[in-house]
Design brief:
Shape of chain A: globular
Order of helices and strands of chain A: EHHEEHHEE
Distance between the termini of chain A: 19 Å
Number of helices of chain B: 4
Largest sheet of chain B: 5 strands, mixed
Number of strands of chain A: 5
CATH superfamily of chain B: STAS domain
Strand content of chain A: 25-35%
Helix content of chain A: 25-40%
CATH class of chain B: Alpha Beta
CATH architecture of chain A: 2-Layer Sandwich
CATH class of chain A: Alpha Beta
Oligomer: heterodimer
CATH architecture of chain B: 2-Layer Sandwich
Number of helices of chain A: 4
Largest sheet of chain A: 5 strands, antiparallel
Shape of chain B: globular
CATH topology of chain B: Transcription Regulator spoIIAA
Largest interface: A-B, 26 and 23 residues
Strand order of the largest sheet of chain A: 1-2-3-5-4
Radius of gyration of chain B: 13 Å
Number of domains of chain A: 1
């Protein structure tokens, strides 16, 4: 069960900054090191940027993750944009459709511990990433 | 939030604040290029010590700034990338290839002075 949930509406580049700042604060509150908080904030920045670039608007939700023996953070990026037609291609390094931002998804995957993506053309994209506190 | 640009002889120094949006970064790019032309600057230092996140957009903008300024005949050096930020950048695959970096402002100035000597 999560105890905290923070939702940030993403519709402009300014919201990207807000989302990553809230993510960093929550990560620090949950006991992550400052280095891990930077990795989490960077992943949030990339996910929020994908929303602005590809969907126009969406939402970033930040939650604590309570495992039986450990604590972590979940970041959910969702939008109702055009969706990703070829997800496996979007997960390959160097692939981009909006010009040189193709590092996004594979990079986010490397920054976090768990990565899930669900995208339906015409309906939207939902990316859920998790990081556990070591 | 605008990035202040300081002129110190032939060098321009831009000091980043913690939370820069994409629009701020784009603004910095045009302001720096304009001022390099206006003051006939030979070097630019971008101090990112205060920056807490360097994502793909920020990294790409810094690379563009360095390349544009090089085409103008001046040198750019990025200083003060924090260790944690550097770690996250490498994980993301951002290496700022082809862009000079230095530990801090002092080292950045030393690097540029060295460059100026060889450019003469």
């Amino acid at each position: 069960m999560s105890r905290v949930e923070i939702r940030v509406t993403i519709s402009s580049d300014q919201d990207i900054v807000v989302a990553r700042q809230k993510g960093r604060s929550l990560a620090l509150e949950l006991g992550f090191s400052s280095g891990d908080a930077t990795l989490i904030a960077t992943a949030i920045s990339e996910l929020a940027r994908n929303i602005v670039s590809y969907a126009g608007s969406g939402q970033i939700a930040l939650k604590d993750l309570q495992g039986s023996t450990r604590v972590g953070i979940t970041v959910t990026a969702s939008d109702t944009g055009p969706g990703i037609p070829n997800v496996s291609q979007a997960l390959r390094d160097g692939f981009s459709t909006s010009g040189s931002l193709g590092l996004g998804l594979p990079g986010v995957r490397r920054l976090m511990d768990e990565f899930e993506i669900d995208s339906k053309p015409g309906q939207g994209t939902r990316v859920v990433v998790k990081k556990w506190r070591p | 939030m605008e990035v202040p640009i300081l002129k110190q002889g032939a060098v321009l120094i831009a000091t980043f604040q913690a939370a820069l949006s994409d629009a701020d970064l784009n603004h910095l790019r045009s302001a720096l290029v304009q001022q390099v032309v206006r003051f006939r600057s030979r070097g630019v230092i971008v101090d990112v010590t205060a920056m807490d996140v360097m994502d793909s957009f920020a990294s790409r903008t810094l690379r563009e700034i360095a390349h544009i300024i090089r085409l103008r005949g001046a040198e750019t050096v990025i200083v003060g990338i924090q260790p944690e930020v550097a770690f996250a950048m490498v994980q993301l695959g951002l290496t700022l290839e082809g862009v000079a970096t230095a530990l801090d402002l002092e080292e950045g100035l030393a690097y540029l002075n060295q460059k100026f000597k060889t450019m003469k």
